Amino acid sequence: MTEEMNMEKSVCVNIQNYTGEKPVEVIIRKGDAAKAANPLPTKEPIKTNISGVISAPFDWLEKRVDTIDQKRSNIIVDREAMSIKLTINEDDEYKEGTVTGKVEFTEIFKKTKINNPNDGWAPDRLGQFLRLNRGIANSGRDEWMKLVSGLKSFKATVQSNIEKTRDSSGSRSDVFQMTVQSQLPKSFQVNIPIFRGTPKTVIEVEFDHYVVDGDCMLQLVSPGANEAVESYRDECIDQVLAKIREIAPEIAIIEV
Q1: CA pair distance 148, 150, nearest whole angstrom
Q2: Residues 6+ apart with CB under 8 A from 222
Q3: Which of 23, 101, 127, 231 is a plausible cystine mate for 152, CB 3.0–4.6 Å?
Q4: Could you report the per-residue pLDDT of 174-223, keeping only the tens digit for each?
Q5: Which of 177, 178, 185, 120 is nearest to 149 (CA)?
Q6: Which pTM does this prediction carry?
Q7: Residue 15: φ, ψ to 5°
Q8: Residue 101 burial (CB < 10 Å; 0-12/13-18/19+)?
Q9: Residue ranges per domain, the chain?
Q10: Are the beta carbons of 58 and 240 closer than 8 angstroms?
Q11: Helix ranges, the chain (H)
């Protein structure tokens, strides 16, 4: 006799008040019971990772400071990168979060390439750019178009001067310098916003030049814009840090 048969014989059914009028049907089900549904998998906490304007760390702390442990948080200040980075739960890899605020240049300021040491202008391309963006001019139309015309004809003038001095001892770089000094104004002015969210500023721009593969490239430089960048950057960062110290004095602030 098998174990299964023994189990069937061991079933006991107790029916109270049975009169025998109807047969009693007993069903014995065999097999394994249905498994319980799989529980939802445990997931890591969703980390805070926010990036915004320079005041973003303060704006976040203003509403959340009572939910964090200030002793386990820090703020990294990078003035060269014009950024403030708040880190919370710094010692917990699963719950660590960051809020970063940055001072950002406007698109038009970046497109002009002012004070950009890694990118210059071919004179004719600069002339075309200034022609299409006449709205940034801080001078009359005639003066602006004269500058545009000078830039667009700059290459032909340089080549002509090189032909004249081909047999002389003058170097090509000297010819470029002479042309820059004689054909283009010493400087010109633009009226543009430097940083996002700020009003327009009049910037005086000067020409510098360098030679690449025999072609003259123009660099736009502005000491005034550089001073404005440094001043505004430090002013914005210092204002935000002062506000953070008021509401969260226990957070470590570190300058890099």
Answers
A1: 5
A2: 114, 115, 203, 204, 205, 206
A3: 127
A4: 555 555 555 778 899 999 999 988 889 999 999 987 766 667 788 999 99
A5: 185
A6: 0.64
A7: -115, 120
A8: buried
A9: 49-104+232-255, 116-221
A10: yes
A11: 3-9, 56-64, 107-112, 123-132, 141-152, 154-164, 172-183, 223-247
Distances (CA, A) of 221 to 143, 189, 210: 20, 11, 13
Q: How far apart are CA 70 and CA 249, in angstroms?
A: 8
Structure tokens at 192: 């543009």
Residues 6+ apart with CB under 8 A from 45: 94, 95
Residues of the chain with pLDDT under 70: 1-11, 33-34, 36, 155-182, 211-214
What amino acid is encoded at 88 in this protein?
Answer: I
